[in-house]
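#lab-general

N.A. 3:47 PM
ok so I finally got the sequence cleaned up, no stray characters, all 185 residues accounted for. can someone with queue access submit it? mine expired

B.Y. 3:52 PM
send it over

N.A. 3:53 PM
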Amino acid sequence: MLIVSAPSGSGKSTIVNWLMQEHPELRLYFSISCTSRAPRGTEQNGVEYFFLTPEAFKEKIQNDEFLEYEEVYENRFYGTLKAQVEQQREAGQNVVFDVDVKGGVNIKKFYGDEALSLFIQPPSVEELRRRLEGRGTDTAEAIEQRLAKAEYEMTFAPQFDRVIVNDDLETAKQETLQVVKAFLG
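B.Y. 4:20 PM
back already:
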């Protein structure tokens, strides 16, 4: 299993998607998470997410069915079901968790040496600001919120097996590939 966490704008999704598309021999597949939000656009239950009512999500929390979960807003939950991960593993998939830092730390605690945890780190907060501003998708206020969150998230980096500093995307991709190949053996 591969756990990948990073502050927003670090290049995590770019690196993970590259690994999955360009290196099918690694047999990497995303874990399918649950959410209590409604499907968006063409999203399908069991493909992008498992869509649950807030009540059903809370029931699964009570039954200790999640590896990790978070209530992002009131009654807006996201989480990873233990049973779903086991089904994917039994199917021979190497499961990829694209999760926030707390979720990453929790999954690593649960699986220990069966999972490799990677933290993708921007070279600096200033570079992160430049990237977020360059995207042109966020207001100045949203960028400030993301940067404050990123500074907090970066304090979790030492709890991960490996930290990959993404100051050059191609170098970060190759370093990630080598670390994952070595882990999968």
